[in-house]
Each structure stands twice: as C-alpha cells, then as structure tokens.
Amino acid sequence: MSLFILRTFNSLIKLLNSETAPSQIAAGVAFGLLVGLTPFLSLHNLLLFMIVCLFRVNFSMFFVSLGVFKLLAFIGDPLFDVFGYWLLVDLKALRPFWISITSGALWPFFRFNNTVLIGSLVIGLILWIPVFGGSIWAVKTYRARWREQMRNSKFVKAMKATPLYGFYEKYQSFREKMDILS
Amino acid sequence: MIRWKVFVPVFLILALIVWFAVYRLDFFVKGMIEDGISSITGTKTDITRLRISLFDSKLSVQKLEIASATEPFKNAAEFGGIIVDFQFLPLLEKRFVVDEFSITGIAWGTPRTSSGILPKKPVSEPSWFSGVVDEAMDSMKAEFKELPVNKLLDFEVPDNPKEVVERMDLQSLAAYKQAAFQAQDLRSRWTARYKDVKDISNYKKLAADARALGQNLPQDPEGILKRIESVQSVLKQIDDEKKKIETISDDVSNDFASVQKLTESAQAAFEADYQDAKGLVGFNALDTSTLTKMIFGQQWVDRAEAVIRFQNSIREKLAALSVSSKDESIQIQPRAKGRDIVFVRPQQKPSFVLAKSDFSVNAAAQNYEMKLRDINSAPKIYGKPTTVDIRGEFKDSMIGSAKIAGLWDYTKEIPKDVYNAEVKKIRASDWPVGIPKVFPVKISSGTANAKVDFDFVGPLLTWTNQVSFSNVTWNFSEVPKAGVLVPILTSVFADIKNFTMNFKIVYKEKKLSFDIVSDFDDALKKGVSKYLDQKFQDFQARLKRELDQKVGQAKDQAMAEIGKFQLEIKSKTDAALAGVTQSSKEGNQIVAQLQQKVKDAAAKKASDELKKNLPGLKNLPKLKFP
What we know:
The complex is a heterodimer. By secondary structure, chain A is an all-alpha fold. In chain A, 81% of the residues lie in helices and 0% in strands. Chain B is of the alpha+beta class. Chain B is built from 13 helices and 15 strands. The longest helix of chain B is centred in the last third of the chain and has 95 residues. Classes of the chains: A mainly alpha, B alpha+beta.
C-alpha cells in the first residue's frame, strides 16, 4: 500500500515536472472529476472511459483525480440526491427533456432518472470547464514557479533519503531491466 | 489529438466486454434467479441449466430445485422445466414483458444430493408496520395468557356449602333486611298517624244517633224537616270521617304494596343468590367460549401470527414498488443510491409485466391448476390488480382439494389484499388443538372443510375462517387424569363428533382482536353441565338449605313485620273504613226515609186543608209533592 502511494506520488511529481501538455493533465483531472462524482457502475461512465482512452487524456492524472473525487462523492451524495430531485421533479420546465431522455430504446439503461446520478452528473458537467481551465492554469503556474523549488525542497530530499524510497528505486530499476529484456 | 493507436484496442476490448456479457448472460441471470428465490425462501435454490435465447426471445430453465427449510437433503419443490417467452424490443427500453410462462414437472419433497440449508441472515430492522403488528400480536397473546387455564386443574367438587355461602355477598339477605326495616318503620309511622283516627265505636254511635232521630217522628212536615236536618248533620260528620279514612286506607294500601314488592324482590334475590351459589361451584364458573378459545385458540393464534407476518412482508415489498408522492405525475422508487423518479405519462408501461401464466400438473396423486394474471413492477402505472387462482386435488394427502383466489390491488392509494380459499377434506388429525400440559387432547381421525376470507384493505384487516369438522374422534392418551373437570371434559369430548368453528381476527386502529364462535361451546356446556349436575345434585340441595338458613332469619323477621303491619294497620284501617262506610250508608237510608215521610205528611196536610175549606168538592185527585 505504501509502495503504491509512493509510486503514485512519484508518478504525479514526475508528470508535473515532465513536458506533458498541461491540457492533457487538466483533461485527466476534469474527466476524473466527472467519473468520480457520479456512481461508478453507470453506462455513461463507459462512454467517458472510451473518450479518455481515445483522446489524449493523461491516464495517471485521470485515475488520481477519479480516486480523489470518488472520496468526495461519498460525502456529496446527499447533496446530489437533493439537487437531482430538484432537477427532475421541481424544475417543471425540464420535465419534457427528462421524459425524452429516460424513455425510448436504450436510454433507460443510462438511469438519468436517478436523483444521485443526474445530480452528480450535472454538478460534474458544470464544474468540468472551470476544473479543466483551472488545472491548465495550475500546471502552468507550478511549472513556471515551483518546479525547481519542488525539486530542491527539503521535503523531496528527505523523502528520497528514506529506506522505502531506496527500495522503490531498486524496484523501479528492476522493472525497467525486465522491460528491456522482454 | 486522438490516440488512433488506442482506438482499435479499445474498440476490441469493448466488443470483448459486450460479447462476454452476452455470452455470460445466462450465468448472471441464473445467479440472479437463484439468489432472488433464496432471499425469499431462506434456503438454497439450484438451477441445473438456464439458457437465454435473445434470437427466439426465450428463457428456458432446466430443473429448478428449491431446498426444504426443515429437511436439509430434501427439496421443498422441484420444477422440471420452466419456459419464459418474452418480448425482445421492450428489453431495449429496460422492460421485461413476458408473453407466456409455463412450468412442467412439478414435484414436492424430492431428494437432494447436498444440504439446502443456508446460514441464517441477520434480522433486518423491522419496519413501522412490523412494530404495529408486533404490538397487536403481543396484546392478543397477553389476552390468551389471561385465560383461566389453571381453573381446569384447580376445579374441585366442593364439600362444605357453608364455605360457599360465607364467601358470597348475598343480595337476598340485604333485601329481606330492607323489607323488614321498611315494614317496621311504616308500622311505627302509621301507629302515630292512627291517633287522629276515631275509634269504630264512634261511627257506630253516630249511626245510632241517626237511627234515633228517625224514630218518633212528629206528624207535621216542618217537624220532620227539622229532623232531616239533624240527621244530615250527623251524616256529614260520618262522611267527613269516611273521606279521611278512605285517604288513609289508600296510603296504607300503597305502603303495604311497596313492602310486599320489597318482599317479592327479596325472594327473587334469593333465587338469584342460589343460582350464583350454584355457579360458584358448577361449570358456570368456567365460560365455555373461553374454554373453546383455550382449546382451539393458542395454536390458531400462532399460525395467524405467521400468516399476518407473511402478508405484512408481501405488502411491504409490493408497497415499495411505488412510493406515493404529492405530485401525481411522478412516482418515486427508493434505490440503494438516491431515488428513481418515474414520470407518469399516458401509455406508459411498467418495466416488468407478466400478463398471463397458466400451468397445471396432472399426476396420479396430485392435480394442480394455477392461473396468474397481471404480475407487474408498477401497479399504479399498470392499472390492473394482480390475481392468482389455484385449484388442486390430492389423493392420500393432508387435504383433499383446495381452491384459492388471491388479489393484490396496489393500483390505488389504498392497498388491498384479498384471499378467498376453500379447502375440503382436511385431515382433522393435523388440526392443532388442546391446552398444553393441562388438556393436551388431539384429534385422531375425522375430516374438516374450511372456508377462509382474508380482507386487508388499507390498515383494516378482517380474517374469518369457518371450519366444519365431521366424524371426529379424539385422542386422550396424553391428557392427565388430574382434577375433576379434566376427566369430565374427556368424557364429554368423546361424544362430540361434528361441530363448526368460526375464527375471526380483526385488525383495526392498531388493535388486533381474536374471537372464536362455535356450536362446540353449546355441546361442551350441555355435556359438562349434565355431568356436573349429577355430581352436584346432593350438594346443591345442601347449598339451598344453607342459604335458607343464612337468609331465613332476615326473611322471617321481614315476614313478621309485614304480618304485624297487616294486622295492626291494614286490618284496622279496613275495619274503620268498613264501619264508617256502613254508618254512612245507614245515615243516607234514614235521610231518604225521612224525606219520603215529609212528602207524605205534607200531602196529607194539604188534602186535609182543602177538604176543610172546600166541603162541596168531591173526588179530588190525590196530591203528589215532588
């Protein structure tokens, strides 16, 4: 578990320090938000996953973001339920729209008539653009201002000095060798 | 921008996922059905093979076994083959519409190769309705605990009538004492009042005065008229006394009647006391309807509890299909996460419909026929109630035939569950009876026919069962020969062969009531009374004597006081009234005689005067005075 966290953290730092396009990283965060907030086993998530696979969305950031937002979703579910109910029931103007996307062939499988699903999906979609834009800005800002400071920071150095990190480096070099051999 | 290298693998992976899902659909559905049935029965459910053909829109199940809850290596039911013909297109709309559903090869109690018992699940939180049912069942059970079971054992033939009489609150004793007191009180009051009443000799003297005035009358009319006035004066005194005595006589008669009435009430109270005394030592002390409740009720209540709980769980499951909302255009279905909002609109259809299913089994020993109609997942949208009609005939079984009709109507705000059943030739020996430990009688042979009506509309439940037993023989092998009543009951039961029981359970305003009405009560009461009367004949005679003795003194005192009242007051009044009436009568007669005489004297005087003043006149007509 510690190794996994360390590996993820290392990958994240490496990713941020790499030359990967900020938009790819930001897309990973934004799509992770969308999938993470909504109930995982939903049909729309399959489509989102296809989009993540087909377009140049950063996988690492996508999964990290998914994990973080999934944790937030546990807390946010009651709010999504109330918001979803308001959208589906109280907002009468949208009633024909909801009826059209919850009936007919295949549509019912998306379960858009579920309060938590629609509530979280709509909140996710609303947050998507700000999160995407904000992430681009954050990555760019990080790279411009804090990348070098981060590399030379006491925290990173202290972490690299830990026996666990030494073990991780050995494991990483072993894997690289195995990859070359294979 | 697009990862073209990833496109093909992703597409392939997705295609693989879809293919695997479709290929393994049979496996998933099989597991779902097995788990679904097991969650209801609490035992293992096995399907040997399940195949879904989307091309033919058909689901076929080969050998479905539902394990028995009591015997691990036996199946409660086994179905050889099940075929479900469904519609394909509604599946795309997430709807499962079954055109036809058929079952073949139904068998009961078949052997299993592995144990069918599942580990017990933790008990889920009871719903609000379960709580209400619990409360009602508890109160009904408490009522049963209060039934005087011990009276059966404690009942004894008494020996000492004095003890019985001593512990009674005798109404007759009080009534006789009251009668005596009233008679005494009235007598003393009347004695005081009688001081104003003249002695009878006074009336006789007045009558003699009147008679004397009627004697030695003068010849002239004026003289006679003066006598008449004197006699009328005496007569007035007599009449005044007569009126007075008449009033007194009426009052005395009324008082005497009231005292007599009290005595009659006391006599009636004595009879009532005697009956009560007999009741205290006889079978009357034990209410027969209570006895029937004790013998037939407890087991029935236990079964009723199981049925009500089962029905309650059905209602909760069906009611959960649609939670009512203030907004009639939507239905809310609770889910593990959030709520599904179903928009009610014209021509909407439920996601699951089994419109019609008929199947029957014809075997040597058993014939079944079952008709299921309109099973669906959204009753309010579907608009039609679900019905089930089962008919069965059995040979060498605990029942001969059964007809059951069930209706679950959840299409409106008030849910309605109705069951009507007729079961014939029930093996009476399987019918639970008896009072554990005290009177554990059993039925050893005979048959019973039962008619059941179960109506559960909204919160009101009415459940009536009419069971007619015939040719019943009883098994007393476990009945202890303790006390007096138990052996008597044993003898009486042996003579009761045919009877009808009406069990009624009503659940209203959160209260559950249970009642049994039966002609068994009458037969039981008659039989037991006959036995007890024989046993108590001598004792009852002694009891009456004891009661007589106890009440006798008060009774004698009351009668003596009434006698005194009658003698001293009533007789005296009657005599005075008779005397004064006689005197008045005599006085009136004297007045009448004198009036006649005055008329005669006046006529004579007038005639003499005419003759004297007119001597020439002859043959004068006789003068008559009015």
